[in-house]
Amino acid sequence: MATTQAEPGTELVLEVEAIGELISRLRGRGYEVIGPTRRDGAIVYDSIETVEDLPVGWTDEQAPGKYRLKKREDGALFGYTLGPHSWKRFLHPPEVRLFQIENSSDGFRIVNSAAAQAPPKYAFFGVRACELAAISLQDRILIGDKYTDAIYADRRREVFIVAVQCAQASANCFCTSMGAGPQVKEGFDIVLTEVSDDGRHFFVAAAGTPAGAELLTEIGAKKAPAEAVKQADKAVDGAVAMITKRLEMSGVRELLYEQVESARWDDVARRCLTCGNCTMVCPTCFCVTVDDASDFSGESAERWRRWDSCFTQSFSYIHGGSVRLSPKSRYRQWLTHKLAAWQDQFGSSGCVGCGRCITWCPAGIDITEEVATIRDGAHAAAARE
Amino acid sequence: MENASLLEILQKHPFVQGFQPKHIEKLAALGHELKLERDRIIFREGDESSFFYLIVTGKVALEVTALGRTLRVQTLGDGEELGWSSVLTSEGKHFQARALGVVKAIVFDGARLREACEEDHTFGYEMMKRLLGVVAERLQATRIQLLDMYSPAGAKA
Amino acid sequence: MNDSATFTDAGVEAAFPAGGPADVMLPAPCKVAQVDKETHDTFTLCLETKGGDGSPLFAPGQFSMLYAPGVGELPISISGDPEEPGRLVYTIRSVGKATHALVTKSAGDAVGVRGPFGTSWPMTEGRGKDVLIVAGGIGLAPLRPAIYHILRHRGDYRRLTVLYGARSPRDMLYRKQLAAWTYLPDTQILTTVDYGGLSWRGYVGVVTTLFRYTRLQPDRTIAMICGPEIMMRYVVRELEGRGLAARDIYLSMERNMKCGVGFCGHCQLGPYFICKDGPVFPWKRMQGWMGKYER
């Protein structure tokens, strides 16, 4: 029953039951709702149909190279932080068949171009502040730069975003250092803050767009009493208090450009397996490779685009050899690109402080530690001069 | 060349830039004008001939013969030097030198140049400085040549 | 059509629509007009293009992504005359599967083309100046369009000097053209090889040794260099040693490319995407990035 005209910005309150209703209404509008769900011992993003698909009452425990699910004492719907998936797998898919080629009188003809097909209509359910920041960073590469990636642009245009403010942080989070959270500021249709405290369980919500406002009205959002808003704010403050890692960003660009020969690179190279996990889980890494293949008859061919990683030996291959052959040079490339070169290319660093690269690194390499040590090394060297 | 004296020609050669006039005169006294016709072999590999040439005009090729093939490994042109090893040592030549066209040069006997350097160390120092420069430049260039950088699997940055 | 202002030094925008709205990832089929052999492993592919309004199809220094259907796609510099209508010319060295597939095409076969992409040689910047072109090996291919442009607009430029080094005489590109250009006024063409046989009566030695036979006036010269990275490094050193300013020296860089349009990330060198910010760079921008080991 609609009781309040929800305008973007106004804080509203929702009962827990309304969340299930939100999911159905989104599906009713033709969206495929993608949300968090438990699978294979992790919380991943996949199609969800009801609120029971969410990881109700579960949380995650993370540390460098470690990830475990743990049961909570309450029934919070969003009581975890981040899993190995990021929303980039839906906007910038891991594998896309760009087109097929058929023989024709002109030589060949392009058929089934991915960019020409209607994009899926996704509703992202449960997007964290750092993830919103990551999406807006990927927008800069794939839409905002010299050329537009049509596949990304089409999906991005269609997507409906239900954001969630964090009430807890993992041991690997450092969004505060990157200005990327945990408060959700912009880029969403609806933002929810879950309060699960002392037996009470409800949501404070706000709309970011007219479409979001409409939906909130439909599911019965009422104006939030001041006390509810206070509890929501307290929940987010709780998340901030749990953040222990810091990445000092000031001067990082010059630091990394100058410290090309830092001894720390050799040190990290001894630990880094160049497995590329970090690039797979990172929500802003965008590198892809393009492969052409034909069938045996040569009558038709396909071009595929797949995620790639600068950690592979062949990434920088050019007639006769790779420019970056050693693991040291590849790790250095990734970190320097992410924190320094990105700034020259896209106006800000490419890191949102989500901590996934730290969690999913089998060697437990922590970029906040690496940067701090390089900085210390630079200071020590300068002091000696 | 017919109208200018050897001294005047020598004074214009890049090799003696910065030499004191008396040193240029000393050098001129030791040299002879030479004109070589096209394809003339100036010296052969192993020759004990010990001459040092300052090329005035013309092009000279350094060659190596192996397995019936002759390869040109370097060319020298106007204002350059040929046969620096003659001034340093009396060992035989390592390469063959051939005039690719008409070559006009000033030629010096290597042994006599060596003697002059021993007698007058100031003159000798100036000579050696310049010869070292010639050898250094050739060495750098040869090293780059060895990289075979034009081949597909060749050197990369 | 003969006005130099028809393209800027930023290059011609990708102009090959292929099916529907401009999508830079879709190749357009072009028919092969002919394939000429340059050396034992290098061939020049001439493609026919349709349409166009008579303005240049590309700017000197730009490249296309060439697609051998079913085999693969790679970046190849355009090496023809930008103002020759209806043709795209590429000099390709056969070193792998895709290049082999391209050079073994016959007249009438189709090749996919995306582009042109990238930045171009400073033809506008160079007006009124002496132009020094230094090329090594196949590096002469991306510079040939610049030479064509200068010859078509000869009055816009002063002395033209071309220094070209190759491995051996049989590896030299465009020998007949180079020989013909030698006779043009205000033009000096010097070629050298790393080694030659008895029939080679030209210079032998690395391309940097040719500088002593030129008369460079550093304050009114613009230099354009293309070749193996090592060669370019030494040539830049030689030029700076002779008084050229960093902003008057331009290079064409090369890195692994998968998309050619700044999405795949492969071609990065420091903060630069070679496909978008290059391949032509003023030395001022490349200083500090080239020659850094394993960058």
Report what the structure shows.
The complex is a heterotrimer of chains A (about 375), B (about 160) and C (about 300). Chain A has about 375 residues and is an alpha+beta fold. Chain A has twelve helices and 16 strands. Chain B has about 160 residues and is an alpha+beta fold. Helices cover about 35% and strands about 30% of the residues of chain B. Chain B contains five helices and eight strands, in the order ααββββββαββαα. Chain B has helices at about 5-10, 20-30, 85-90, 110-120, 120-145; strands at about 30-35, 40-45, 50-55, 60-65, 70-75, 80, 95-100, 105-110. Chain B has a four-stranded antiparallel beta sheet with strand order 1-8-3-6. Chain B has a four-stranded antiparallel beta sheet with strand order 2-7-4-5, with no helix packed on it. In chain B, helix 1 packs across helix 2 and helix 4 (about 110-120) packs across helix 5 (about 120-145). The mean pLDDT of chain B is about 90. By secondary structure, chain C is α/β, with parallel strands linked by helices. Chain C folds into two domains: about 5-115, Elongation Factor Tu (Ef-tu), domain 3 (Beta Barrel), CATH 2.40.30; about 130-250, Nucleotide-binding domain of ferredoxin-NADP reductase (FNR) module (Rossmann fold), CATH 3.40.50. Chain C has helices at about 95-105, 140-150, 175-180, 230-240, 285, and strands at about 30-35, 40-50, 65-70, 70-75, 85-95, 110-115, 130-135, 160-165, 185-195, 205, 220-225, 250, 270, 270-275, 280. In chain C, a hairpin with a 3-residue loop joins strand 3 (about 65-70) and strand 4 (about 70-75). The N and C termini of chain C lie far apart (about 40 Å). The interface of B and C includes residues 72 and 148 of B.
